Amino acid sequence: MPYYASRGVIPHKRHTQFRAPDGRLYTEELFGTEGFSGVHSLLYHVTPPTNVQEARLLGTITPALAPDGPLIHRHFKTQGLMPKDADAIEGRQMLLGNDDVAMGVAVISKGMSYFYRTAEGDELFYIHTGTGTIETVFGDLAYRSGDYLVLPVGTTYRVMPSGEKPTRMLVIESRGAITPPPRYLNDFGQYMEHAPYCERDLRLPELHTHDEQGEFEVRVRARGVLTSYTLSYHPQDVIGWDGALYPYAFNIEDFEPITGRVHQPPPVHQTFAGKGFVICSFVPRKLDYHPLSIPVPYHHSNIESDEVLYYVDGQFMSRRGIEVGSVTLHPGGIAHGPHPGIVEKSLGATETAELAVMMDTFKPLHVFTDALSCEDPAYMYSWRE
Q: How far apart (Å, rounded) are the C-alpha atoms in residues 257 and 276?
């Protein structure tokens, strides 16, 4: 995160005695990256976070790879992926991935009966539909459609949907940090004037301290396996925290699109940066205003990157046969662009109502077996005249 924040009650000086009204010492925890030199926060617990009653192995969690085939464009219709009675972890169906990042979808029909933490990298959720709350050690974040939820590595949380409809979300699992694009920030970490969003667009957790005893489970993902830890205290026992590493929410409606006289390339839509990948937001916007402009994207070869689009809503102007929840993969090495007839049809258009999330990776993506059940095999040949 680019700026300092504080919630709850904290001592005047760090690394000093901080006591509860009954005289007990609160436990200070450094929650940080890169050892003691990276971005960090300090959390103050009622109970030491090392107080574990039992640890047991649950098993490996590596998605299975689909068999290799020809290099082709691919289309996955994820709207049909509807696991029954699933939570935010069990309901994940990962579609694509490499050594840096993995992408999938989750349809959540129930809250988590346990807490979860990954020690393998940051996570990013895009809430397609549904409402609820993500409960974290930093506090609670209410979510709604259009929210990006950024969870730093090591964050203990659980997702609790509300309302009658399930929560449907896009899941990005990173092997590193997910940050604002560096070109949007000045040397002091502040968003610059040309950035398409800024600090006031971000929502931070509201702290709720749970000083409760009982039996609570935390499942931790690390080194490709899942371990279950049993605690005798509620994991959300933080009385206060401060620092620059914490979860936050940002709604896609607050992304201000950058437009121009001629068609702008995808980097103008960039919203987040990760190790080996970027995330972009395509939102409703005015189109190009040069008298001879072509509003749809020009044909391009992502020679050293793979392009993935998750279609949220509206009419995506350069594609036919796309539906809500579609995921398309355009791999590096072969060209792609508008479908036949789309260029001529777009001339004179002044605005677009499309809503989509894009992930570009700089290493080739592999297809996981979960994706095969919803693949459209005809997509590669949909450019035929």
A: 24
What would the pLDDT profile of 36-57 be if each residue is shown by its tens digit?
Answer: 999 999 999 999 999 999 999 9
Structure-block tokens of residue 239: 């009385």
State the greatest distance between any 2 C-alpha atoms of the chain, in Å, as a whole number. Answer: 78
Question: How far is the C-alpha of 23 from the C-alpha of 362, rounded, in Å?
Answer: 54
Write down the residue that tokens 């980097």 correspond to.
267
For 146, the token pair is 């259009």
Positive or negative CA dihedral for 28, 29, 32, 36? positive
- Other beta carbons within 10 Å of 20: 13
Cβ–Cβ < 8 Å for 44, 240: yes
Q: pTM for the whole thing?
A: 0.95
Say how many residues make up the chain. Answer: 385
- pLDDT grade for 293, boundaries at 50, 70 and 90: confident
Cα angle 158, 64, 218; round to 5: 20
